[in-house]
Amino acid sequence: MTNHQLPITNYHLFDRSRLRAHRARAAANFSAHDFLLREMVSRTCERLEEIKRTFPLALDIGAHNGMVAEILAGRGGVETLVQMEVCEPMLRGAKGLRVVADEEFLPFAENSLDLVISVGALHWVNDLPGALIQIQRILKPDGLFLAMMPGGQTLRELRAAFEFAEMEISGGVSPRVSPFVDVRDAGGLLQRAGFALPVVDSEIITVEYDHPLKLMKELRGMGEANALLESAKHFTPCATVMLAADYYMQHFANPEGRINATVELVTLTGWKPHASQQQPAKRGSGQVSLIKAMKD
Number of folded domains in the chain? Predict the structure, then answer.
């Protein structure tokens, strides 16, 4: 395992040191709380296996404890996989080639990788457009980028519960749930980063918990506790947490008395441009009149 020291980003939405601390705290017992990430990795790997080609050198950005390598296990056309994670204690659980580095500053050469895959990591990046540009740069021509991350509907119930509780107790709202990418914007981000043939889709899954506090404990166990800079200035009062939990139970409980947690999974796919790829037809090159076609 190698360690790559990197400068601090100029963007200030997330506290990256706080994120590393959350991951380090979760590392020892991560397997007890990895259900959601494992589901995301499984779905992403299934998509990769549908692409019938070979990837001699691949990078897993945000590898956590090596789940992508574990589930792929040599499948999906991947011959060599480098696992990159921002938190060294978390990465200790992975086997194979490993590097400690930051998603915001990728320490890889231009045109060096055949595949970049990322699951459940890029939603903590301060400058997502900049990260996508870096990923496009390090891919070889015709290299593939495949990622899954939480979308804008994720944890909407928890967000609503805390907004209500804070308004009731303090008369204002502070950020408690991380903002997530909007699926409507993700395609534009891929195009802006220079990817060809961009595809973005999303799906909603609902996870059940006995109680809102169980959900909060699960997020902490996943290393997904709040790492927003604005929220780092003070701890959440116990009264706020309990009122939020009560609101959650009243408004988002199912008939069985358990609570629902919405998770939107956004998948991004893009290729580094290459002459062999299908190209859009030039404007005005059509041979059939649109008016005629509509009449027919």
Answer: 1
Q: Are 176 and 226 in contact (CB under 8 A)?
A: yes
Whether 291 maps to a domain, the answer reads no
pTM of the predicted protein model: 0.87
Residue 183 belongs to a domain? yes
| Residue 81 β-bridge partners | 58
CB distance 23 to 86 below 8 Å: yes
Task: Dump pLDDT digits (tens) for 83-129.
Answer: 999 999 999 999 999 999 999 999 999 999 999 999 999 999 999 99
Q: What is the pLDDT of residues 36-80, one digit of tens each?
A: 999 999 999 999 999 989 999 999 999 999 999 999 988 889 999
Domain CATH for 149: 3.40.50.150
Give strand ranges (E) for the chain: 2-3, 55-61, 78-85, 97-100, 113-119, 139-150, 196-209, 259-271
List for the chain the helix, strand, coil content (%; round to 5).
Answer: 40, 25, 35
The DSSP line for 198-218 is EEEEEEEEEEEESSHHHHHHH
Label residues 114-147 b or e (16+ Cβ within 10 Å = b): bbbbbbbbbbbbbebebbbebbbbbbbeebbbbb
End-to-end alpha carbon distance in the chain: 65
In a domain, 287, yes or no: no
In a domain, residue 158? The reply is yes
**Domain assignment of residue 46, given as a range:** 2-274
